[in-house]
Amino acid sequence: MHRQNDSTKAVFFREKVSLITVVAIAIAFLGVSLLYKGDNGMTLNLLGLGAILIAALSYSVYIVAVNKSRIQFMSGYKLTLYVMASSAVFFLFKAQLTAGLQPLPDTRSVVELVMLALPTTAISCVAMIFAVQYVGSTVTAILGALEPPVAVAVGVIAFNEAVTQNLVFGMLLILVAVIMIILSDYLHKKMRPQKLV
């Protein structure tokens, strides 16, 4: 998903992509791919994979646009309001064209909807926008690769999902990629040829 971000940045804004960033992206992509667990040996659905790649490209363009345009000077709260309001209008039309809006059956459904809207959507969107403004789109995208390991950890702890070798190895690869990005400045200095006095 986040692999598209740096390529978008390099293609449209002609920015140089360092070797460390490319290696970190490749490692993170491999780690995320290992987290996939099919049922009865099923392979990835090509239609679903295509939808994911389109979503990843759209997400990448959004992050880079926030970082490279005048939007970056807008308040993160205001930008989140505009983005989520636009999304709400889009899904309202989509719902009307398909099954229509359904009434919430009970109080528990209302609470679950609020929990889905606030902690997992609104707060995360605001945090992502501030992250892009403070540390840039590439670092935000790479650190965003921590989402799959966190999701796996929640699944194991909260829903007693099985821990497989692929899950463990995939999470380790993602952590390695994130650490490489965090230490990229230090690694660049170490890799740079030293001038002779």
From TrEMBL:
One of its GO terms (cellular component) is membrane. The chain crosses the membrane at residues 17-36, 42-64, 76-93, 113-132, 139-160, 166-187. InterPro entries: AA-Vitamin_Transporters, EamA_dom, EmrE-like. Keywords: Membrane, Transmembrane, Transmembrane helix. It is found in: Membrane. It holds the Pfam family EamA. Residues 47-182 form the EamA domain. The keyword Nuclease does not apply. It is a multi-pass membrane protein. SUPFAM superfamilies: Multidrug resistance efflux transporter EmrE. PANTHER family: EAMA DOMAIN-CONTAINING PROTEIN, INNER MEMBRANE TRANSPORTER. Belongs to the EamA transporter family. This is Putative membrane protein.
